[in-house]
Amino acid sequence: MDARKFLGGISLLAALALTACGGGGATSGGGEAASGGTTVQVAADVAAFVYQQTTLEAAANQPITVNFNNPAALEHNWVLVQPGQEQAVADAATAKNGDPTGITGVIAGGKPITNASETINVEAQPAGTYPYICTVPGHYAAGMKGTMTIK
Predict the structure, then answer these.
(1) What is the pTM of this model?
(2) DSSP class of residue 109?
(3) pLDDT tens-digit readout, 67-95
């Protein structure tokens, strides 16, 4: 068996197990992080340009830890942006092959990854509703987005 296929299968099984344990809802509420902030889980869907969790919640004025899992062989990332800046961020990231680093309007986010997980630390934010998007070219336009309500 090809090692890449074997590892991809293991990643898929792990993602399915984590999803099953998560209750299957569209909302991932915040557990308390060790530092007093909120930790949320979000994953890319393996078959579509969507996140498995399209709404997230976190505590206001506290740091947020986002555990992002991409079990797919296709690149995805998770990027929190200032409200109203989604399209501008997506457009600017297109010129950088999806890398959101240094783009105006980005609050926090990771570079595109495949078959991997990453932790994204978000500095404390005031209460509000913040969009998150995938900045891989074309993914936001295809519907890969969600909202984080900070209250």
Answers:
(1) 0.78
(2) E
(3) 999 999 999 999 999 999 999 999 999 99
